[in-house]
Amino acid sequence: MLSPYTVLDLTDDKGELAGMMLGDLGANVIKVEPPQGSSSRRMGPFLEDAPEPERSLQYFAFNRNKRGITLDLSAEAGRRALIALAEKADFVIESAPPGRMAGLGVGFDTLRQANPRIVYVAITAYGQDGPHADFPASDLTLAAMGGPMSLQGVPDRAPVRLSVPQVWLHASAEAVVGALTAHALMIRTGEAQFVDVSAQTAMVWTMLQGMVAHAIQGFDFNRGGSTIQLGSVTVRLVHECADGYVVIFPIGGALAKLVQWCVQDGLVTEDWIDAEDWPTYHFKVLQGQPVSHSLDEVLDAVGRYVRHKSKSTLLEQSIREGVTMAPVSTIEELARFRQLEERGYWLAAPLPDGQEVLVPGIFARLSEAPMSVRRWPPTLGEHNQEVLGGMLGLSIQEIATAAGSV
User: Fold this and answer.
1) Which runs of E-coded beta strand occur in 99-211?
2) Which residues on neighbouring strands pair with residue 70, listed in sequence order?
3) pTM for this one?
């Protein structure tokens, strides 16, 4: 899909997913690392028996479909090589602190002089300018400043962090959207484009309808733990089952089915089936109308129904009969999830220590322009000769000088 285009990926651990997504979409992505390697190479977990620069599974996870070179941007030769590459590229993506690349003499203004059609994408914590631009930032603080952490946890305690670090992953995905949107504008105008990606702003988008709650209802959503607040009614969503937990939203047609299942298992009497118009039961509860069985009774029956059944049994039954129900899966269970297996989601990847393992696959399956993994993550400086020599015509000595290996 993006095979005509070249991307210079100068990101570290705060943006590498962006280049990988563009690479998955077919772009020619050149990963540009400092001589000591990307910061992600020093992030765990680590392989025990791999060469030192290649031990990081963090780096391996987010750098496929890229060629890799090293450039010493603190030296004139490295900066000249980057500018020469930018002349031949369509996109530049970086995740340096605000103003750092411009301070080195390789920022947007310099690169658009070299290439007036370049799309330059900068990923930072709070954007290039503004009152928070230079604030210290981490995954934890950005998740808090972005808003979604305010909804994590139970209401009578302090909020809790999001599960695994994901702020920079969301920022990277937004960077891809921004890059492609800016490229469409560049095609119309013929002018270089600058895309300013704020990780904090990207996290605001993850709140979904929470972003507009106050404007619509006059107050923000509050932390509810494993419950959801519907007007004045609190509904429990997470129920314990035989081997963990399942999420059930007992309203509408799903509730009608759940009541039938409870009757079939002898958990409630048969007269429950006709005691209510179950698909509209939740409307009566929300409106405070009289009901034959209270919401607590209904939730108790649902809880007793799932308590002695496995997650897989409940999932298969819910899919078969059209009930919205989801298992709370562990990583191990996701790795064995039947749908992912049958759709061929997992890919066999050769790790740098010689192992072959299953890893997450392509993020979308397209019929007209299928995506694939064309290459696994590059070793440090693996393509210096191919890119700096082949694309720029540098000599072996010039390559070594630009790459910072002399």
Assistant:
1) 119-124, 193-198
2) 33
3) 0.92
**Cα angle at 19 between 16 and 22, to 5 degrees?**
150
What whole-number distance in Å separates Cα of residue 185 and Cα of residue 5? Answer: 15
Here the tokens at position 59 are: 């780096």
Instruction: Kindly report, residue by residue over 297-354, the tens digit of the pLDDT.
Output: 999 999 999 999 999 999 999 999 989 899 999 999 999 998 899 999 999 999 999 9
The verdict on 194 and 238 lying in the same domain is no
Domain that holds residue 87: 6-207+366-403
Domain count, the chain: 2
81 and 191 in a single domain? The answer is yes
In a domain, residue 246? The reply is yes
HEC string for 67-101:
EEEECCCCCHHHHHHHHHHHHHCCEEEECCCCCHH
Q: Please tell me the distance from the alpha carbon of residue 248 to that of residue 306, in angstroms, as a whole number.
A: 10
- Answer yes or no: do 52 and 193 share one domain: yes
> What is the C-alpha R_g of the chain?
26
In a domain, 356, yes or no: no
